[in-house]
Specification:
Elements lengths: L1 H4 L3 H12 L8 H14 L2 H11 L5
Protein backbone atom coordinates (compact mmCIF):
# COMPACT_ATOMS: atom_id res chain seq x y z
CA UNK A 1 0.00 0.00 0.00
CA UNK A 2 2.82 2.40 0.87
CA UNK A 3 4.81 1.66 -2.24
CA UNK A 4 1.87 1.91 -4.64
CA UNK A 5 -0.33 4.59 -3.12
CA UNK A 6 1.81 7.11 -1.24
CA UNK A 7 4.13 9.62 -2.90
CA UNK A 8 7.39 10.73 -1.38
CA UNK A 9 10.76 9.40 -0.35
CA UNK A 10 9.68 8.78 3.27
CA UNK A 11 6.90 6.43 2.21
CA UNK A 12 9.26 4.70 -0.22
CA UNK A 13 11.92 4.28 2.48
CA UNK A 14 9.35 2.93 4.94
CA UNK A 15 8.02 0.46 2.39
CA UNK A 16 11.56 -0.82 1.79
CA UNK A 17 12.27 -0.96 5.53
CA UNK A 18 9.22 -3.18 5.97
CA UNK A 19 10.10 -5.28 2.92
CA UNK A 20 13.66 -5.92 4.08
CA UNK A 21 12.82 -6.47 7.76
CA UNK A 22 13.38 -9.81 9.44
CA UNK A 23 11.68 -10.37 12.77
CA UNK A 24 10.95 -7.53 15.14
CA UNK A 25 11.80 -4.09 13.79
CA UNK A 26 11.73 -0.72 15.53
CA UNK A 27 9.62 2.03 13.97
CA UNK A 28 9.53 5.69 14.90
CA UNK A 29 6.33 7.38 16.01
CA UNK A 30 6.22 9.12 12.61
CA UNK A 31 6.53 5.79 10.77
CA UNK A 32 3.76 4.25 12.87
CA UNK A 33 1.52 7.24 12.20
CA UNK A 34 2.18 6.89 8.47
CA UNK A 35 1.32 3.18 8.63
CA UNK A 36 -1.93 3.89 10.46
CA UNK A 37 -2.95 6.64 8.01
CA UNK A 38 -2.22 4.52 4.96
CA UNK A 39 -4.00 1.49 6.43
CA UNK A 40 -7.05 3.57 7.30
CA UNK A 41 -7.15 4.97 3.75
CA UNK A 42 -6.44 1.84 1.68
CA UNK A 43 -6.71 -1.37 3.71
CA UNK A 44 -9.57 -3.67 4.58
CA UNK A 45 -11.09 -3.55 8.06
CA UNK A 46 -9.47 -6.90 8.89
CA UNK A 47 -6.02 -5.55 8.01
CA UNK A 48 -6.63 -2.40 10.08
CA UNK A 49 -7.73 -4.47 13.08
CA UNK A 50 -4.67 -6.73 12.75
CA UNK A 51 -2.31 -3.77 12.46
CA UNK A 52 -3.85 -2.07 15.49
CA UNK A 53 -3.59 -5.29 17.49
CA UNK A 54 0.10 -5.64 16.64
CA UNK A 55 0.86 -2.00 17.36
CA UNK A 56 -0.89 -2.21 20.71
CA UNK A 57 0.97 -5.39 21.63
CA UNK A 58 -2.03 -7.69 21.36
CA UNK A 59 -1.95 -11.27 20.22
CA UNK A 60 -4.44 -10.64 17.43
Amino acid sequence: MLYLNVNGIRAHALALKIYHSEGETEYSAEEVQTLREVANAYATPAFIDGLNSQLEGGAG
